[in-house]
DUF4345 domain-containing protein (Pseudoxanthomonas mexicana), 124 residues
Amino acid sequence: MTSAYLYLNAAIYLLLAVWCTLAPARTAAAVGYASLTRSGQTEYLTIYGGLQLGLAFLFAWFAWTQQMRTGLVLAMALYLPIVLFRSVALLRWWPVETATLVLAVTEWLMLAAAFGLWWQGRSA
């Protein structure tokens, strides 16, 4: 089950990296960026393309090498602050774009799954 979760993370981040790399203006607009300067485009491509591709690699690597606990630690370390910051931001700047809500729900579910798998592994 944990392996499938880690591969799912890898697939999600790979798809996001490809989507953000191939259609940066469209994806930026979908999450609320009105426009990006050249510096903004560089930053967007680096973080939303490059970093997400790196995360895809890490999740796939931990699943492939059967380092399940390390993969779950990565997931919790990644999703916990994202969920906290996203939740505060949603409360502060509601209403938001649909794409932002979809990302938020996905992040909340992935965090809950990581904690669930972690605790399931501790009791085994």
About this structure: The chain has a mean pLDDT of 94.
